[in-house]
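Appendix B. Chain record.
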Amino acid sequence: MRSLWLALAASAILVVSACSSASPSPSTTPRSPAGAPSSDAPAVMAFPEGPSALRDMFAAEFPEPLVDPKEIISGGPPPDGIPPIDAPEFLDVSQNLGILPENEPVVALEINGDARAYPVRALVWHEIVNDTVGGVPVAITYCPLCNSAAVFERTINGAETSFGTSGRLFASALVMYDRATESLWTHYNGTSVVGMLTGTELVTHAAPLLAWSDFRQAYPTGKILDWTRTGYIRDYGRNPYNGYDDPANTNPFMFRGALDDRAAAIQRVVGISTGGASSAYTLESISDGEGMATNTAVGGSSLAIFWKSGQATALGANELAEGRDVGSVGVFEAMVGGNTLTFSFRDGAFVDDETGSFWSITGEALSGELQGTQLVRVPHLDTFWFAWSTYQPETILITS
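Structure tokens predicted for this chain:
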């Protein structure tokens, strides 16, 4: 464990020392109300004026914070010391099928027919990508310490902004800031917790972690982020958190607070929050063999959890592709055309009992009576138990 802590500390120092090409600290540069807009449209002046939470988390002008600011601690780097990607470049999937090892994880996002893959080999070094997908301004975020990917819209009250890394952590999870007001946001749930926008919640989009092989099969006309054109020099493909994804690890990096002992701190779970309820499914409870379908319900909604082998954990071995197989997960509403479907896994695909249609890990019917139908995606987090139980303390834990 001591060697892991030393490795993580060394990684933080590496990030800081390698940031000479990053933008100046946000607290020393002028702020524009619209942050970094993705188009030439006029900015909408809809943001409140007030002090920056990056400079002072205790300013009297702020609404009452949602978390104790004293629990938001420095993770080492300064604001944007882990530099977001603000001008992402992309490659066509069809022309770059072999660009990644098949089992490497990517964050998969599809909005209005625009499908994009964001390799974790880039996100582990940058944590945020400000992009516009299908005409929607979004922030693709990834927290290595809690192993979670989440995507949020960057439009707040009709005005667009962008997000940066604050250099701080809450419960060992990424704390972001918006560049319009410099309020602080928890990446885990897209909520502003300190600053002028305290209490504001961002719109969430489903963005599962998929193996590259699954993404390119599902979205052959999609695009993949080109990590060689980020504007930064990083050892992409190497895991700076080598050995962190280890169930024997009982001390999450820089975690403060009590751990929920219903499961091990670094237990992998699939976290789902919908309809006012939340549930966490251990990886072992929803995975088996080459694939498995779990029929369940959360918050009164009938859901299907698809799991398919073939994705490596990004946080296990020195090289991302060498991590153990943790598989890919998709969560969907199980209702189609007013009928609730029941799923199983056979012959290498997910099959519904009602029509015998075959479905992909991304929830598309590939053949059968429902061919071409897309199941409604449900946002979820592939994450660690310590983080999910901290943000969802009333969660139900499913272990079998």
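Further analysis of this model is presented in Appendix C.
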